[in-house]
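pinned: reference chain
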Amino acid sequence: MSRSILVVDDDARILTALSEAIADETTEVRIAASAESALAAMGRALPDVVLSDLRMPGMDGIELLRLLRERAPATEVVIMTAYQDLPTVATAMREGAQDFLVKPLDLHQLRRLLDRIFEDRRTRERSRRNSTAGAHQAISDRLVGSDRRLIEIFKLIGRVASSRSTVIIRGESGTGKELIAREIHDGSPYADEPFVAVNCTAMPETLLESELFGHVRGAFTGAARDRKGRFALAGKGTVFLDEIGDTSAEFQSKLLRVLQEHEYYPVGAERPERTEARVIAATHRNLERMLAAGEFREDLYYRLRVVEIEVPPLRERMSDVPDLAEHFIAKASRSAGRDPQILAQGALDRLLGHSWPGNVRELENCVTRAVLTAAGDVIRPENVELIERPDAEPGLDMTLAEAERRHVIRILAATGGHKTKSAEILGISRPRLDRLIARYELELPGSDDEPGEVG
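pinned: its structure tokens
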């Protein structure tokens, strides 16, 4: 089966490198220096796959993607960019892109992706199915970073936002679980409906049930009138249940009814109410251990895990710290009515040297405090106040191998996967670092010093 690929990029070097790398006896590769010239050159000979840059003069990659979805729905589109713009990742996936690749491109990864695309095409042709385009919604830029796992989270957001599936978001406190829930809601067809967040730990059990389901007059002392709960107020929107792992077995059974039957009983009511709200839950707890201990209902566990998103802690994506810091500087500066300040290298080094047990929330608080305490337009090391928590230190039962593994992970994350720089910081040779990576089976962030890359 012959394969045809059109590469669109305004960089002539990338066009040449990619056409040479992916062309073979069964694959025809054409090139175009702009989206406009690509559309003009297609004519009736539509390519199987378009590999398009995102940022180009004139029409950009997203606009090209939208036109191709209309004019050539059978053509698969892969977006590539050096601008690690995560909101654009989700937009591209919802607009119908097959994937989103960050430059510099790993040619082995690209070839595997193309093989997968063509295998999927053969499967669809055999089954005579047509793929459907994603929802045409934009995602805001409230989440910042370019870590590989965060990119995968945004891809997943783009795929599930338009559905009504229940989602559970797992991760440590302060990692941004509620922000991810809001991104899912904002990308859904019901983005204009309310997003209602409830912290299940912040209120007593009896109050939590009344808060979510409402109550009727006389249901308990002080209930002088009927009151709508959060599910009623959410309409067709989203109810976000934070720290669902901290709820009681009785409440879990009532929530299970909501998920199964889409109805609930207000406190004191004799008739159930219907709900069309979507449920997104979050927890920092280990639900599997809770299941084994009988502390969490197994049926609710599987109802919640229709889609699961695991958010990595900040210490495992330290390469995002500079971008996050700049983002929070701009945010805090706007609130303070001043121009954004400059982060001195020494101050950034202090941020990169911290373990961030409080994750992104702790980083934002630290940067906001630095913005307010800096005397001039430069944030200096003395403005960066770090709080060391004794309980965040490695446990006394940690093995030397585990301590070594964690330190290597931290340095690789801080350098964005740059092995040469990581080896220099660790004070070891590059071959020894390669052996440590293999020994501990580590997955690297996007690297910029490895062979076999284009961009």
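why pinned: The CA atoms of residues 402 and 440 lie 9 Å apart. Confidence is low (pLDDT under 50) at residues 127-141, 390-397, 446-451.
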